[in-house]
């Protein structure tokens, strides 16, 4: 993953020092995590339609289901006193992850979670008022 990340950052024309800083940080996070979970989409059991519109909707439903499972996992971890971090870097290196972990080619990695006991607890951020982020009819 680091090799591909470095290659992408080079394409972005970032300075070498910045590339090294980011790839080192990324690698350290993965290595330091007590548990790393990869969530994937598998379309094998999903419906197939004769038109692109419904197939796209079916794929989006599967991705939403994976995201929902990820959120539930983070909430369950939190309830047990664990911390979790969700990163989406697997989206950029799906084939690499499939090969390294010997996953089925039908499994499309979507997210990576680092789970463990937190070293510290960040302060709760102030949230926008509900009326500011909703529309009432």
Describe this structure in words.
By secondary structure, this protein is of the alpha+beta class. It has two domains: 1-28, no CATH class; 33-118, NADH Oxidase (3-Layer(aba) Sandwich), CATH 3.40.109. The protein has helices spanning 2-11, 16-32, 52-79, 94-100; strands spanning 35-42, 83-87, 107-116. It has a three-stranded antiparallel beta sheet with strand order 1-3-2, with helices on both faces. α1 packs antiparallel against α2. The mean pLDDT is 94.
Reading side by side through the largest sheet, how are the strands ordered? 1-3-2
Kindly state the mean pLDDT as a whole number?
A: 94
CATH superfamily of the largest domain: NADH Oxidase
The end-to-end span amounts to 47 Å
CATH architecture assignment name of the largest domain: 3-Layer(aba) Sandwich
Provide a count of the helices: 4
- The helicity comes to 40-55%
Radius of gyration: 18 Å
Indicate the CATH topology of the largest domain: NADH Oxidase
Structural class: alpha+beta
Report the portion of residues in β strands. 15-25%
Order of helices and strands: HHEHEHE
């Amino acid at each position: 993953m680091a090799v591909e990340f470095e290659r992408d950052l080079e394409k972005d024309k970032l300075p070498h020092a910045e590339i090294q800083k980011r790839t080192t940080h990324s690698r350290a996070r993965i290595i330091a995590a007590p548990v790393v979970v990869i969530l994937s989409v598998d379309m094998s059991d999903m419906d197939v339609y004769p038109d692109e519109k419904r197939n796209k909707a079916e794929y989006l439903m599967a991705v939403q289901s994976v995201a929902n499972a990820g959120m539930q996992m983070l909430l369950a971890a939190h309830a047990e006193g664990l911390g979790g971090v969700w990163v989406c870097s697997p989206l950029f290196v799906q084939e690499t992850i499939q090969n390294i972990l010997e996953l089925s080619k039908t499994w499309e990695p979507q997210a990576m979670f680092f789970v463990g006991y937190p070293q510290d607890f960040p302060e709760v951020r102030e949230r926008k008022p509900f009326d500011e982020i909703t529309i009432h009819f």
